[in-house]
Amino acid sequence: FFFFSPKFVFGLHCLLTAENIHWLIDTTIMISASQRIARGLSRTTIPTARRGLGCTRTFSPLSSHGGSSNSTNCSVSSLDETSRINLSSPIIVDSRNYMTASHVSQFTNSGSGSVRAFSAEANDDIDNDVEMTRLVPHIRNVAIVAHVDHGKTTIVDELLRCASESVDEGENKGRGNDDLVMDCGDLERERGITITSKVTRLDYCQKIDGQENNDFVVNVVDTPGHADFAGEVDRILTMIDGVCLVVDAAEGAMAQTKYVLSRALKMGLKPIVVLNKCDKDEAWGRIEDGEVEMELMETFDSLGANDDQMEYVTVYASGKAGWATTDMDEARELASGKKERKVGDDSISMRVLLDTILKGITAPEVSPLVGIVNPDEEPFAMAATTVGKDNFLGRIATGRIYSGTIRKGDTVALIPRETADGEVENMNLESSAVTGLFVNRGVNRTDLDPPVASAGDIVTLAGVPENIAVGDSLTLASNPVDHALETPPINPPTLSMEIGANTSPLAGKEGTKVSSSNVRDRLYSETDNNVTLSVSRSASDAERSTIHARGELQLGILIEQMRREGYELTVSPPRIITTTCKETGVELEPFEEVIVDVETEYSGSVMDKLTGDRKGLLLEMSDSADGKTRLVFEIPSRGLLGFQSEIATATRGTAVVNHLFLENRAHAGHIGGVEKGKMISNAAGKANLFSLANLAQRGELFVSDGDIVYSGMVIGENSRAGDMEVNPVKAKETSNMRTQGKEEKMYVPPPKKMSIEELIGYMSDDEVIEVTPESFRLRKTELDSGARERASRSKKRKMMANNKK
């Protein structure tokens, strides 16, 4: 009886109305068309969409291997007249690997696969214009992300070697046997970290059915892994289309890769995982147990990876042995020695990783330009990622070309980053002629031959305008784009510090650049390329400069670089930059996540150091089979100042500490317990063994016999609270008086030597660091002991007055 009831008949009548029938037919056709695109058909036409059908993502163009990287997401929505979709022309995807559509900008979003027009008038005049999104199938731009000592440099060197062997002309030149493509700077080699980003170009000829007939360009980009270099990471990731995560199979995913990987996943980049050092004895046990894979999955999930990014390709490799494969069984045989790689066998060489990059990483997508049908007519547009100065070439800029073509001799115009839409036409743009086009092959910068570069490639231009800065756009003066390219915002700094010329009694004796103007000019030149740094004149001392940075590691590396260049500096204590919440008025300070890997026997010491006076909160604690413990904390950034040196002493150097910025939270109040006292010299001269032997019994020394000291210099740490004035230059009296006891041999333990980063976290508020090319010295800001005593009494009176109030 239900089937003949009035309610059923009425519902069936409403369902079969003409409008709903048309909607069902159109939906079926749209889904069928998207499936045909996914299968890689050469041409697909989608009819006009009717009202109420909302597309939240546009069709992505076909990759060079067929298939579609993004699918169409259609949903029924109630849209008003201004936001309805009006596809008066069909979307066409053809065999030339680009997509055309009328009014695409009306329904594309700003996420992955979106289309952004350069013209600000794109939405005003779209009836007769055509937008085009196309891929550059012969180029791949990929970033290499790895933890310290996980084999990133070895992997890239092997990739460069394989690419060189694949090209008959030997275009990948510039690499010696001992050169390191990545981490080639002196500081990078010493510290084992990446400080500055680098790009190397691989000209690779892919083999298909045993024949080399496909020429590709693979731009490999190295990125810093530490959160202190956030500005460097953010702007480098805008040049790439995928990431290659290198992981030590014996250690698993480590904390240093978290920041770069999280930023890459947030941008929708596709990852490839390389399990390196598979030939280690302890590696295969973790791989077969699924321990490494579970760690990777947890890492990707915690960083917000989507379903597509979780389906990453895993490559098993040994960079040292020079083999790579996607077959786990084959990798086991290679690692155990049951199978050996034969000379010329490319099926298990690093070609496997190169082929995986070509297949798994999306080709560069050229931004659509309104009104341009022929790609050859697109205006040139490039965002400057790094800038520099060459004594012979002049001003240079490196970046990715987003549209158009550039040739040697073309005149380029500079569009500042802050330029608003529509202002370019009314501006008098600074312009200059391009004197050279270069690419980095290995560790050398070589001329691009022929000197022509097109969209999707990463190149270096010489002869650009002098006032160019990181984030600015370059375009042709004869055919400029309408507005500046979008660049990522700069993260706010967390630390501030004052740096000036050396003012100690030993100033000018060890360095060559000693004036305050030299120091200030050098700091301003650093901000030219290091966008996360900002420099201003000090409010308290006109001879000093205040520098704002992301962390003490970034400041320490800058000071070390200046020291090696011959500068003499005075460095004041760091201060955390706090903000105020606009809604509640509460003072906020930065908090960080700290991950400590340490021997299990020292885990208690780590917890005591971080959860006590430093106000850290223990979130997670896990033990591994190799006798190590991983501790995860949340702690104010202030609590990490000076932590590295303390934890290194407490754990005998076995602790590995990594930290990552989380967010700004309410101020945690006073941090730190009783401050340790210092031994302060009250005389000038050379430290004497006789005095040091007596002082060593009262604390830990920072100087050794024969070191030059002066009044007000900190020469050691007092074993008790409070500062102590001492005389380290006093010698034993030489007279005819004999001692009753036997003459004993004097012994002084080795002095404690600290790096710049350790001194930055160790010094008190009334101390500064003297930095010269030959030494570091910790001293009091006020060298005169009487002035220090008066300042101390004045400070106590102010504190007592505040307490009474």
Could you walk me through the main structural features you see in this protein, from its secondary elements to its overall organization?
By secondary structure, this protein is of the alpha+beta class. The chain is built from 18 helices and 42 strands. The strands form nine sheets. It has an eight-stranded antiparallel sheet with strand order 19-18-24-15-16-23-20-21, with no helix packed on it. A seven-stranded mixed sheet has the order 8-9-7-10-11-12-13, sandwiched between helices. Strands 25, 26, 27, 28, 29, 41 and 42 form a seven-stranded antiparallel sheet that branches. Helix 5 runs parallel beside helix 6, helix 13 packs across helix 17 and helix 14 runs antiparallel to helix 15. The radius of gyration is 32 Å and the shape is globular. The termini are far apart. The N terminus is likely disordered.
Distance between the termini: 87 Å
> How many distinct beta strands?
42
Q: Helicity level, as a percent range?
A: 10-25%
Uncertain spans: 1-10, 21-131, 173-179
* Helical segment count: 18
Q: Which structural category fits the helices and strands?
A: alpha+beta
Q: Determine the oligomeric state from the structure.
A: single chain
Describe the structure using short key phrases.
805 residues, alpha+beta, eight-stranded antiparallel beta sheet, 18 helices, 23% helix
